[in-house]
Structure formats: C-alpha cells, structure tokens
Amino acid sequence: MTAQTTVTTSTTSLRRIADYDRPLWQRLFLTRESAIIALVVIVVVFASIVVPNFGSKITMTYLLLDIFPILIIALPMTAIIVTGEIDLSVASIVGLSSVLTGVLTQAGVPFGLTIVLALAAGLVAGLINGFLITAVGLPSLAVTIGTLALFRGIAVGLLGTTAVTEFPEFWTDLAKEKIGSTGIPVVMILFVVLAIAFAILLHFTKFGRGVFAIGLSPEAARFSGVDVARTKMLLYVLSGAVSALAGIYFTLRYGSARGDNATGMELQVIAAVLLGGVSIFGGRGALHGVIAGVVLIGVLGSALRLANVTSDVINIITGALLIGAVISTSVIAAVKNRRRTGKKLQIAGARAATTA
Amino acid sequence: MSATTLNAPSVGFGAIVGRLTRAREASILLAVLLVVAAATIKNPNFLFSTDGYRDLWLTPSLLLLVAVGQAVVLITRNVDLSVGSILGLSAYLTGRLFIDMPGLPAIAVVVIAIVFGGLLGLINGALVAFAKVPALVITLGTMYAFRGINVLWTGSDRINASDMPRGFLALGTAQVLTIPVLTIIAVIVLIAVAWWMKNTRGGRECYAIGSDPDAAHLYGLPVTRRVLTAFVLSGALSGFAGVLYAARYGTINSQAGAGWEFDAIGAAVIGGVAIFGGVGSVWGAAIGAALLMTINRALPVLGVPDFWQRAVVGVLIIGAIVLDRVLSLRQHRKLIEERETQR
C-alpha cells in the first residue's frame, strides 16, 4: 500500500484543486456522501409506500437493533481505512468479547465488572493488532487475517459448542429497551454519543487531520509532524474496544454467548464503509456517508424481508452496490479529468488507480 | 519485502536468495512432517490406518488447488476474496448438471465447471483490470454477489450423493498406487502452475507486476492481460476445486466453500507468499495448505480439543509474517553491508 500512496496523492490533490472552482453549495451537496444519503431517503420512501408494514414503528425498532453493532464498529473502521490500513479482525473481537461476557457471567462475576473485563479484552486485542502493524511493521491486511483466525479461535476454544444463555434480566432488557413510546432503542443514545465523539475526533481535531494526512501520504505526514505509529496504534485500540462493546451488546440482544457469534460481520462493516464513500486507498471519506451506507444496507435488507423476497437477495444487492459505488468513482473521475484538464492528466489519473 | 526481487548486485547474492527461498519452503515442509510424526507417535492410526493414510493425502488437496490460484493472484499484488463463493457455485452447478442433464458424461461436467469458474474469475479480473478498482473491494463485492446467487439458486435445497453418478463419486476415494486420485490431480495442477510461474515469460511478468506495478507498466509489460490471467486462473482452479468438492463430500448446500477465502490466503501467507506481491512461490502456498489442513486433523489426536484449531491457525499466520519480516530485514542489512564492503 505504501508504494501506491505517492501516486494516489497526485490524483487526490488534482481533484482537490478542481473542487474549489465550484460554488460552496455544490461542494457541500454534490458529494458521494449526499448521493448515498439521497439513496437511503429514496429507498425508505419507496419502501414505505410499496412494502406493507415497512413504515411501522416496530420495523424501525428492529432495524435499529439489528444494525447497531455494524453502526458502531463502522466508526473506528472508517478512521482505519482513511489511514490506508484495514482491520479484518473486528468480528472475531465481537465473538471473543461475547464469549468472555458469557464465561464471566457463568462464573458469577458481577455484570458491571464483566463489562469492564470484556472491554479490556477488546482493548488488548486492538493493542496486539496495533503492535504488530506499527511496531513490527507488518501489512495490516495480513496481520488482521491472522488475528481474525486467532481471536475467533480463542472464542471458540473457550466455549466449544456450548452456549451461555443466562444473563441478568436488567441488562438484557436494557439492550432491547425503547425510549418512551418513540420506538427508538435506548442503545441508539450510545451510538449517537459515539458517533459525535468520532465525528469530532476525525473531522474537527488535529488528530483527525493527521489521520487523513497519513492516508494521503504516510511519509509526508511524518515529515509534517504527525506521529504515524501512535495514530494508527490508537485507532486499532479504539477499534478493538468498540468491537468488544458491540460484542457485549450482541450477547445481551440475543441472550446467547457463542463462539461463532457475528461470524463474517467484518465484511459487512467494510462493505458498508466503502459504500459510504471512503476510499480504500485512504485519505478520503466522511462519517455521515458511512452511517448512511450502514443504514442503506440495513433498510434494503429489512424492506426485502418484509416484501417476502428471499432475504438472501440482499447479498447480491450488497455486492452489486459495493462494486457499483467504487466503479462509479473511477468512471466519474476519469470523465471529469478528461473534460477539465485534457488527455494528459486523464492518463495520470487512470494509471494511479491501476495500482490496486 | 521487495528486497528479494531487486537485481542481484553480485553472483553471491543470487545464491543467498536461492538458498533462502528454498529454506522457506523446506522449513514449512519440515513442519508438516513433524506434525505428522508427532500425531503418529501419539496414535499410530493417524498414518497407518487405511482411512488415516488416505485422509492425510485427501484433506489438503482441495485447499491446495484454491491456495495455488490465490498465490498467483497475490503475487501480482491483488487479492481474490471470492474463491470460496466460486467454489460453492461451481460445486452446486456440478450437482445440478448431473441431475438436469443425466446424459452428460462426467468429463464434460468437469470441463463445464472449470470454464464456469474461469468465467467468474474473468468477471473479477475485468472489473479489477479495466475499471481500475482495487481487487480487495471488487472481490469483496463479488464474494457477496456470487454467494447470494448461490443461495438464491439453491434455496434450502441440497444435492445428495444419490443424485450423482457412482463413477463420479468414486473419484473422491479412488487411488492409484495407494495415493488418492484427487491428490494426484491437485499435484499435477500444482506442477503445471509452478512451471508456468517459474519458467515462462507470463509467470515472470506476474512477479514483476507484483514487485512494482508502475515500473512494470512503464517498462511496457502487459499488466492488464497478466492480471486478467491471474484472476481467470484463480477462478478456474476454484471451479475445479468445486467439482472435486462435489466428488469428495457428496453433499452440497448453499454454504459450500464459505470461509475458504481466508484459509486460502492464510495458506499462501504461511507458505511465504507476500501479501503485497512479488515474493513467494505456488509451492510454498501448496505446502502451506498442507500444513493448515494437517494441523487441523492432528490437533485432536495430540489431545488439543479441536475447538482451538482456528487459534493455532492464527498464531501460524502471524508467526509466518513476522518471520518473513525478520528475514527480509536481515537480508536488507546484509545487502547494505555488502555494498559498503565492496565499495
């Protein structure tokens, strides 16, 4: 990845210059993020009219309950992908923290302490990822494929094929509790708090500028005073902790701690993040787009289920949307370059993208 | 990482590289033998019973095919996450062909499934090479799409052994000189691909592309064509593995091959294929696949509950990449030293 970033930078900076010759409203509203949000609105409106019961309160409640883990894990994942790295181990950390929650509860540990310990385990898992990537200097794709197997292995190893299903009622109720009569789950408050925290961290702090700078060019970021290793380390630790939180929620929501909980969720999260307009090359993306991406996949799935279309079609749609989203970026960029700056830069842009 | 592919500054360096690479595959092979030996000492049935002996050969064969294809894709600095889905689809296609077209000879079914896998690989390759989009994203998308099509097509249906001709199923257990036919097929494919990668222009260009795509492009190598070839090969081998999956296991549902993508990448990485291209060999990936599957079978024999298998696999993958990193750092230092002393 490092070898490509230099080339990628040149295209991004070209696009950046082009951006500023448009009026402010165009820059704010004619973005990939707005396109995804518009798509969500269209799908919701269309589904409410066409699909019976889609507009009802209970549909929304269950939709939000279902996508909550993906929503919160997508927040740190966005930051990690913006730095040009990736974390494939998140779903395994969800599984690990779910199993720990179960095992500790079974052992009679007070639930408050269990939560702390499960979160700590996620933190440590993130530290291991971060250490191997920043201190040892290994590619994140390979490291997290390894820890994907490792953490899942520990989770499955701890519980085997058994499951823990006894949890304090107060907590399982809390996971499904709604705010008054609005039908919005209480856990959404947690999501909103986290989303605001991550939005500030990523878009309005020096640290966040560093994250984007690393994605555009790690060398340039280092020379301009960004501590690349510490930034990445912190992001992986955050990712681990948030995944552990999702694991605790997952356990309480379904009332069951199993080793294979949330298997394959990493790809759902990454698909949603990329759909939300984050560039896999790093350096580009915004949280509102990502949240819209997660919601879009969730709404589509829920609407299709209600319309009695086999829920498996959602896989095809997810895949097609993902491919469509990334291809449209390349096509639009190529067209824009040709129109604005002539043949020469178009070739440069196209070649930069080849280095996938 | 790309240190091994730099132009050799002296004759001595070429020899060192040769020894290092050979040492890498040899050490993984040694690990396989150690695991087999340990398991056999604990329980002689692991090697000496008819079933144990046969499984020892059979179990790695399918993953071996997929890992070889994956290794070629990885060497061009791409990745193919859709291999598991392609395997599942072509396994189901195999079953359907036997049910819907009973007159079709088995060999035609095999060819159709391989071509089908190759076509799916072509879709991946075309999207990656022509649309200029990173392989990780594209194959993540097609992984979902292919699996979705599979589930849509299969539903809750399942293909059972009784649906397929006995002659075809016998392929799953047939042996020549005590070695299962499936293994022989896999090894022949392995040798062919290894020869192509090592001795032909196309294979060498794959390494060049993986070491530095920009340099390869500037040098005038047919990057698009080679990347397409790599993906078609990976798809076709996954399709082939799908046919053999049908023959070996007899039952195929919509989840056949799920999760194989990580096993295949893991096998390649354990075997010394660098995840960012240009380094490694298909031999390494094949031996990595053998190590993964053998450990899976040996753990319960060695007294470790098989629930811990995945954890061991994870430790192996991480250990392998850390080892690669240490070796390449050491080599880098040695190169610098050599340059200083020669000056």
| Mean of residue pLDDT values of chain B | 81
> Which range best describes the helical content of chain A: under 10%, 10-25%, 25-40%, 40-55%, 55-70% or over 70%?
over 70%
The total count of helices of chain B amounts to 14
Calculate the terminal CA-CA distance of chain A, rounded to whole Å.
Answer: 8 Å
Report how far the terminal alpha carbons of chain B are from each other.
25 Å
Secondary-structure element sequence of chain B? HHHHHHHEEHHHHHHH
- SS-based class of chain A: mainly alpha
The biggest sheet of chain B amounts to:
2 strands, antiparallel
Order of helices and strands of chain A: HHHHHHHHHHHHHHH
Percent of residues in beta strands of chain A: under 5%
Q: How many beta-strand runs of chain B? A: 2
Largest interface: pair, residues per side: A-B, 59 and 55 residues
Write down how many β-strands of chain A occur, each being a DSSP E stretch of 2 or more residues.
0
Structural classification of chain B: mainly alpha
Largest sheet of chain A: none
The coarse silhouette of chain B is globular
Proportion of beta-strand residues of chain B: under 5%
Radius of gyration of chain B: 21 Å
Q: What is the assembly state of the chains in this entry? A: heterodimer
